[in-house]
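Task card 7
Instruction: Convert sequence to structure tokens.
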Amino acid sequence: MRKRLLTSLAVVFALIATAFASATPAQAAYGAEIPVTVQVSAYSQNVGMVTGWVQFDDGRTSFRYELSFCRESSFAAPTLEIHVNNALYRTIYHSGGGSMTPCRFAMGVAQTENYGSPVSSVQFIVIGSSFNQNVYRTHRSSNGSSYGKVINPYF
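Output:
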């Protein structure tokens, strides 16, 4: 009788331990790398560019990216705006950088963003400038379009 009771208690404790061990939350997995290339031009010249990839997690609340942010012929250092769900989320300022593929004045940008709520899309917008005929102008890669927008495949 005592042996049966100890065996039953051991089985109950094993079941409880298994339940607690499997109760830890699962980590979200990231999907495939989605290529991103965004170019801004002015007066038949390339002003700035971003190229790389973005990934979304299957939990739909975070994303990560790895980009080469290039200053080409921009008069002032270009900026990169990252829009999440059509709203500005982060601005990255080109710091000069060094030589890396695909351009001479490139800056590597790699980040994991935990947005905290569902991410339906991410848009990368490059803003550069020109100084043509004594007039300073800024130029955006998007100009109000969806150029540079990546839709979350898990959404």
